[in-house]
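SAMPLE LOG
Freezer: B-3
Tube label: C17
Construct: single chain, 442 aa
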Amino acid sequence: MSGAEEAAGSGSGSGSGAGGSGGGGGEARRRFDDKGLVARTSLILWHTHQNDAAAVRKLLEEDGALVNARDYDSRTPLHVAALHGWQEVAECLVANGADVNAQDRWQNTPLADAEGAKKHAMIDLLKKHGGLTYGKTGSHFEAKTIPPPLTNKADWEINPLELDFTKAIIIGKGSFGEILKANWRGTPIAVKRILPSLSDDRLVIQDFKHEVNLLIKLRHPNIVQFLGAVTETKPLMLITEFLRGGDLHQYLKEKGSLSPVTAVNFALDIARGMAYLHNEPNVIIHRDLKPRNILLVNTAANHLKVGDFGLSKIIKSQHANDVYKMTGETGSYRYMAPEVFKHRKYDRKVDIFSFAMILYEMLEGDPPFSNYEPYEAAKYVADGHRPAFRSKGHISELKDLTELCWDADINLRPSFLEILKRLEKIKETLSSHDHHWHLFSQ
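STRUCTURE (predicted):
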């Protein structure tokens, strides 16, 4: 968690007794600024990833310090642009004072990423501006080199002796193992630990390796951060950041239906993480998007991340509209798209359907078809039925978006990038002082 995010989270709790009303106002202003910084940091990294030079330029005009913003792996916007070969964005960042030799968690510079990805034009650009392959203290041609990110197992293989389970707490269980809150080098972490009795099971090992190989490729503010794994000794363990806020399932169980503003903000975080997964060069379909797999960064519930990629599938896509034949009935029945339940060919739009069911649950406060058992609910949905909106206070645009996302025709369901645009417009409406939105009635 970044310093700004830590401050934003801790500031949401009860204040200390010290200070008068003036001090309280200053504290509130600091909390607001911290949250704003987190949002802007996420935005510039997001727009860089999307190759949106105009949006990056606008953000830098508003706040020049964002040029060297850092994500959880200490990667800057220039690292992201270099990895993807986004020339115009990189030139904009450099012109605005980006540190061309900034080093990430693995001590790699943007040039190291560009060379690893074989982005030759980007390599030339960075070298022109003084870029070194491995940072200010060395270069690609020196004897002692640091390998490019994620190419060497040593980058993420964790010595199990470094894991402290003395005060471990079980925070989740599954058929293959358990998830514990533990400590690693003094930091709270989440550990997915495979049951010793299954550590020799070929399929379990295969699924475990699949999830590790997937997670080491992912870096996004709305995706749970992978820290490392234990693969050379048993039990096998996968280590990620520990998010203090718990999961969305428990949050909704305690809070019930969310206000339109909160629902939109939650939906934006989920959609940002999913848009990243769906728009990588190799499309990643989550296939098990549900409230239990969406985690709250802190108890202030102001930032969400998508997690649990055990059922995710990497697709080497040549065309955006490719449809794939994959295993039916993958994922959780209550949030399952009808084409999956029916064992038909499906694509990334299955995640859009699951997103719609989650959005419905955030608005209504109850899981879709909560009076049905999960399997029966999925069967009912596959027969063409959809949950009914009972509350009368919903924003019509949110209801319309939900219904579009769960359309039986997968071609009518919008992409997550389209969903983001619609959610941003709804948020602007909610944020306006006029509040001229239309309420629908049953």
